[in-house]
Amino acid sequence: MRILLLDLKAQYAAIKDEVKKAVDDVLESQHFILGPKVEELEKNIALYSQTKYAVGVSSGTDALLVSLMALSIGPGDEVITTPFTFFATAGVISRLGARPVFVDIDPVTYNIDPPKIERAITNKTKAIIPIHLFGQCADMNPILEIAKKHNLYIIEDAAQSIGAEYKGQKAGSMGDLGIFSFFPSKNLGGIGDGGMVVMSDKGLYERIKMLRVHGMEPKYYHRTVGGNFRLDALQAAVLIVKLKYLDGWSRKRQENAAYYDKKLKEAGLVDKGFVKIPIPVYKPTGDKNYHIYNQYTLLVKDRDKLLVHLKENAIGTEIYYPLPLHAQECFKDLGYKKGNLPVAEEAAGSVLSLPVYPELTADEKDYVVGTIAEFYG
Ligand SMILES: *Cc1c(COP(=O)(O)O)cnc(C)c1O
C-alpha cells in the first residue's frame, strides 16, 4: 500500500466539474486580477471567519507582510513570535527591518506559551504574531490580555488554521488582523499562490487595500509605498467553490485524527511512551475549541529511524519543522544560542506528521498505525 502525506488528486476528483466550470468562467470573462470574483471571495471569507472585512492578497506570506506594513512596523521595532512555525512568519519581520523576538512554545499544543511572552516585551515591542500551528488555535485569551496591557498589536497567523475555533471564536477574528494562506497544501488550497487578510477595523481595511496596489489612492497618486499584493480571479473562483466543502473536509480530518488517537492507544504505543499524541487542549465540545488538523503531528521516540521505516513502507511523512527559526543561519545575528528555547528545540527533534487528509480510508489509517507498531516491535 502506498499512502501520500497529502493526496490532492482525491479531493480534485470529487469536485472536478465545479472547479473546471469556475476556471472556465474566469477564462471567458478575461478578467484576471482582483475584480468581482475576488470581491465575492472576500465577502465569503469575512463572513466565514467572523470578521467585517477581508482583503485577498498574493500569498499568506504577503498577507503577513502587508499586515506589518499597515501597522507601520519597521527598523527599531520588535515583534514577538514563536520559533516553531513556517519561516514566513519571522521572515516578514526581518524583511521590514524589524527584529523577530522568539518566545518558546507550549509542549502540548506546539503554540506560543503565553506565560513566557511578558518577559520578552521591551519598550521596542510593537506586535505579537501568535501562530495557530497545525490547525489548533494558540491560547488566545492570555495573549490578548498581555497585548492590551502593553498596548501591542496582534496579527494571528492562521495560515494553517482556517475554520479552527478558540472558545467559539474563529481563527483570525481575535487579533487586530488575521491572515490565511491558500497555498495548495493548506486546508483551503487554491490552484496556485494566494492569501487573505481579515479584520474588523475599517481603517486597517482601507489601508491594506491601498497597500495591496502600491499604496495607490486615487489612481496614480501614492501617499504610501505599497506593493503588488493582488490576488487573481482564477484563485478566487476556485476558492469560492472549495470554501463550501471546507467544514466537511475539516470534520473528516478530525475523524481521522480521532481514529489515529484511538488506534495508537490500543496498540499500546502511548502507554509505553513511544508516541505522544497531540491533545487538542481546548476540546471541540465544552469550551468549543476546534482543531482542524492541517497536520496530525506526533512526538515520537527514535524519530529519524521511524521516518526511514515509514518511507520504506511507502507512507508519506514530513517533519514540520526540523530546525527552529532562532537556530536558522539567516538569524545568526539575532544572537540566540542552542538551549535558549528548549521546548521548540526538543519538538524539532521528535515531531513527525502523518497523512490526515480527508479522503484517507480506514484501511490506509490501519496500515499507518500497523507500520508504526511494527517499528516499535
Ligand atoms: C504556509 C504558511 C505561511 C505562508 O503562506 P504562503 O501562502 O505559502 O506564503 C505563513 N505562515 C504559516 C504558519 C504557514 O504555514
Strand composition percent? 5-15%
- What small molecules accompany the polymer chains? pyridoxal-5'-phosphate
Give the helix proportion (percent range): 25-40%
Could you give the count of β-strands? 12
Whole-number mean pLDDT: 95
Q: How far do the termini sit from each other?
A: 20 Å
Helices, by number, come to 10
In what order do the strands lie side by side in the largest sheet?
Answer: 1-9-8-5-4-2-3
Spans of at least 5 consecutive residues whose pLDDT stays below 50 are: none
Q: Which CATH class of the largest domain applies here? A: Alpha Beta
Question: What is the CATH architecture assignment of the largest domain?
Answer: 3-Layer(aba) Sandwich
- Looking at this structure, what is the CATH superfamily of the largest domain? Type I PLP-dependent aspartate aminotransferase-like (Major domain)
Q: Report the biggest beta sheet as strand number plus sense, adding barrel if it closes.
A: 7 strands, mixed
Order of helices and strands: HHEHEHEEHEEEEEHHEEHHEH
Q: Helix/strand-derived class? A: alpha/beta
Radius of gyration: 21 Å
Total count of domains: 2
CATH topology of the largest domain: Aspartate Aminotransferase, domain 2
Write down the overall geometry: globular
